[in-house]
Amino acid sequence: MKFFIDTANLAQIKEAQELGVLDGVTTNPSLMAKEGITGRNNILKHYVDICNIVDGDVSAEVISTDLKGMIKEGEELAELHEQIVVKVPMIKDGIKAIKYFSDKGIRTNCTLVFSCGQALLAAKAGASYVSPFIGRLDDISTDGLNLISEIRHIYDNYEFQTQILAASIRHTMHVIDCAKIGADVMTGPLSAIEGLLKHPLTDSGLAKFLEDYQKGN
Ligand code: E4P
């Protein structure tokens, strides 16, 4: 399972990269705004800065919602760095854009996916990644993990190469459950990655080992 971090915060991306388990980064316009990154040039520069920190794919989202605009923006983003994956929303023109990019060898991440039908369309169009938002489904009392299972089943039926990128991860159990189901990738906050480290028996066991070592020395 690949681990992506879902942030535009350079310090957190560095921290995850230094842990040695990071495979990529996802961003979105809200995450960029949260870091105060505004204006086209600053945004493009920030994507390059992220690419220079992480060894792996970096999703950069288009803002346009029409085919022509998405193609123009996506080509500009893809030109920025070889690690860039163009993130395209799950709308009608988005599907057309994914097909266009796929035919041109530009990698895509189809975002804002909330149903199996949407995931099937994204795969048919040739998306490199599909991003079902499990946390946002859970927020409205709908089982986000069930969507990951159903997409896994459908993709395996037809051997679609589109990778399932479980997005909107909120906590460590989302990560573990997605791994059990067989999601190809998860993207979440640093806390969900670092939370996997924690166990009280590890802490107490280590404290005892160190205490016993001190007694004998
Ligand atoms: C996916 O790529 C999105 O950036 C993200 O996972 C959305 O998560 P949220 O629901 O926590 O905003």
Report on the architecture of this protein:
It is found in: Cytoplasm. Its main location: cytoplasm. There is one protein chain. This protein is of the alpha/beta class. The chain has a single domain (2-215), classed as Alpha-Beta Barrel (TIM Barrel). 55% of the residues lie in helices and 17% in strands. It contains eleven helices and eight strands. The chain has helices at 10-19, 29-34, 40-53, 67-80, 92-104, 116-125, 134-139, 144-158, 172-181, 190-194, 200-215, and strands at residues 2-6, 24-26, 57-61, 84-89, 108-113, 129-132, 163-166, 185-188. It has an eight-stranded parallel barrel, surrounded by seven helices. Strand 4 (84-89), helix 5 and strand 5 (108-113) form a beta-alpha-beta unit. The longest helix has 16 residues, at 200-215. It is globular. Erythose-4-phosphate binds at residues 6, 26, 28, 111, 131, 133, 135-136, 167-168, 187.
